[in-house]
Amino acid sequence: MVAELLVVALALGFSASIGAHYTGACMGMPHALGLVSARKALLLMAPLAFLGAALASHAVEARVGTGLVQHRLTLADEVVVLALAFSLTTAFNRFRVPTSTIQLLVFSLVGVALGSGAGVRWSAIASLVVLWILAPLVALGLGFTLTLSLDRLRAGLKDHAPGRAASVWRFGGSALILVGLAASFAMGANDVSNATGALVGARVLAAGPAGVLGGLGLAAGVLIWGRPLLARVAFDIVRVDRVMAVAAQLGQAAVVLVAVSLGYFTSLNQALVGAMAGAGLARGRETVQMNVLLGILRGWVLGPGSGLALGYGLSALLVVAFGTRLLGP
What we know:
The protein is an all-alpha fold. It contains 14 helices and no strands. It has helices at 2-21, 23-32, 38-56, 58-66, 75-94, 101-116, 122-160, 162-191, 193-201, 207-225, 227-236, 242-261, 268-283, 290-322. The relative contact order is 0.23.
């Protein structure tokens, strides 16, 4: 009973950390342009993240819970996975570095599975890794191309239909807010499984109640701790105008939607950061804060690597301490 309560508490805490972490990925662009205040952005995001988790997360929870390892993890192993992923995500939040919580979770899970002897479904992991490498690069190319295309479109409208140009860009601002709201719902549906998949995998909760619990954590994290990452993504990586913001958000949406259509989950943060970098480069390297961007790139490597190494070491210590591993929860 104590182990079940501990894994539930960790899942709830991790989901709150995830909610805080993705505020910039969902609402950073409309906030950067002053279309919504930080307070309003978080108030709009929180209920949609909850609804996404409560209503549309069940299939992804089952996949994360059981689809990446050969045997079910014990409750002790699940505690190690959640504690590691929670701790690493909280550290990235503390230093305001946008990363991928699903990558932190997956590599912590792989480390624990290797250390405990649960076995890893390497084909599933390999396909995810390929996607995670390609996604920000594709987003970068899209951000670059879309910025140049939208600049030409805007110039043409200004020359030939100035009134229509103003209407189009006002609509673009409203569309950015709507895309941010849709991303908030999608984040709840896809990313809550990082925290609650362990509950499903260990048969502590069914997918429905786990989604509701995780959704409450997401909403709390957005409202209580979400402001720093929102500001980081909005203002510290690339100096954006409306064209660049629209291009970055469209690039992010295209990458994430294609991945989802193929049955894979990718990183909202990495897709947006890649698209923002591409949009900035289209305007000249001086618009990109290269020191901030390089720090984020280092975090993308160090976070999963730390999860893998720590997961393996801690799980191996559990095996040594208790002599053997019992399959299943």
